[in-house]
Design a protein that fits this description.
Chain lengths: 220, 218
């Protein structure tokens, strides 16, 4: 059962320096109001775990543009020149992780695993600092789990309890991150009465969603 | 045909009905437009969909349905969506038949470098390392040289994407297959001579007695 909270109050509970997992892929499935609140409240020195930093002015790109990010664990920054510039200038520390490995590290964090072993990255720069192990004649990298203080996830639909359903490619990292943080804040495009989402359609059960961002009144 | 069209067209000939295919951003995306008649494949995108298609009309774009570059796409009947862990399970788990990727360099061992130029371009590997490590077949679609500098080299000077040998290299000049013996020149493009290919290639090429011209099925 999630508590209903305003976007402003949800973000106010996040301290400067927090480690945030943020769902989304090139902005699709990134919670827009929570991002705007992070910028408005000028949360500083954030560590962001996310697939990418989208483009300037889009999704997580807004946090980079506002200079709020000091560390980034991500798979791709190529579409955001601002992230690359801040990395080169030394303003953001960037850890690049292969995308499938990033997903599995987040999953491991949320599913209570001690890590994952993957063939991806063996013999490349991505293997630097990683333990390698041989199993049944094949070489693998040992990748450690990722956890966060907060996960900011975006759903297509939530019910009043915080059961979440996603849409198409906006699902991406959201359900994984909803398992891997101490506090999970969900923002949904629409919020419906309990029962409207059939149990089989629910991807993230309400028990892992701590806060559901309230809708704001709109005039029609 | 311009270079990119020729490359995309030739790569498309490699597809078999029933294949699950992932096309990288850029040139590889064009492959979808040149599938031979009667060949039905499914396109996977690593952001979590099987069954992506071109957006049928700009007015139908939806923020929740994009390709891996964040561009709006459509989907075919029977399309299905899933999270990133599942998406890469498909890729690493041996369920993806073909991936087509761009390249910065491929070397004599058939190893690919396609994700960074130290000091110049550090975009991140995205899904490339998983795709090369996991796909059943890896096809590199790239121009033969970068402004005259050979991209098929003795040994990659750029950071590798994986230590798995790629299966085929298709350029605007040639089709080259990495094998245990080295890089074999399999086909040459129309109006291109073997000598021209050798000239534009730094790596040693094994040239069979007869090298046919690229064939295209409409």
């Amino acid at each position: 059962m999630s508590h209903i909270i305003s976007a402003a109050d949800a973000v106010a509970s996040i301290p400067d320096g927090a480690v945030l997992m943020i769902g989304g892929f090139m902005g699709a499935g990134t919670p827009p109001r929570l991002i705007n609140e992070l910028v408005r409240q000028e949360k500083k020195n954030l560590t962001i775990i996310a697939n990418d930093t989208a483009r300037p002015g889009v999704g997580i790109g807004k946090l980079v543009e506002a200079g709020l990010v000091s560390k980034l664990i991500t798979s791709h920054i190529g579409t955001n020149p601002m992230t690359q510039k801040q990395m080169i200038d030394g303003d953001i520390e960037v850890e690049l992780v292969p995308q499938g490995t990033l997903a599995e590290r987040v999953r491991a964090g949320g599913f209570g695993l001690g890590g994952v072993i993957t063939p991806t990255g063996v013999g490349t720069i991505a293997a630097e600092g990683r333990q390698t192990i041989e199993l049944q004649g094949k070489t693998y990298l040992v990748e450690l789990p990722l956890k966060a203080d907060f996960a900011l996830v975006n759903a297509k639909v939530s019910d009043y309890q915080g059961n979440l359903m996603y849409a198409l490619t906006a699902r991406n990292f959201n359900p994984l991150m909803a398992m891997a943080a101490d506090t999970v804040i969900a923002e949904a495009e629409s919020i419906v009465p309990v029962g409207v989402i059939a149990p089989d359609m629910i991807v993230t059960p309400h028990v892992v969603v701590d806060y559901l961002v309230a809708k704001e009144p709109s005039n029609g | 045909m311009d270079s990119k069209t020729l490359i995309a067209n030739r790569v498309a000939q490699e597809m078999k009905s029933g294949d699950l295919v992932n096309l990288g951003i850029g040139l590889p995306t064009l492959v979808a437009s040149y599938l031979p008649k009667g060949i039905e494949v499914s396109f996977q995108s690593e952001n979590g969909i099987i069954g992506m298609s071109m957006l049928p009309h700009p007015g139908l774009l939806d923020d929740d349905l994009t390709d891996a570059g964040g561009n709006p796409i459509g989907s075919v009947p029977g399309a299905c969506a899933f999270d990133s862990s599942f998406s890469f399970g498909l890729i690493r788990g041996g369920h993806l038949d073909v991936t087509v990727l761009g390249g910065l360099q491929v070397d004599e061992r058939g190893l690919l470098a396609n994700w960074m130029v130290p000091g110049k371009m550090v975009p991140g590997m995205g899904g490339a390392m998983d795709l090369v490590a996991g796909a059943k077949r890896v096809i590199v679609a790239m121009t033969h040289t970068a402004k005259g500098t050979p991209k098929i080299v003795k040994e990659c000077s750029l950071p590798l994407t994986a230590i798995r040998r790629v299966d085929l290299i298709v350029t605007e000049l040639a089709v080259i297959e990495p094998t245990d013996d080295g890089l074999v020149l399999r086909e040459i493009a129309p109006d291109v001579s073997v000598e021209q290919v050798l000239e534009a290639t730094e790596a040693a090429l094994i040239v069979p007695e007869s090298v046919p011209e690229m064939a295209f099925v409409a």
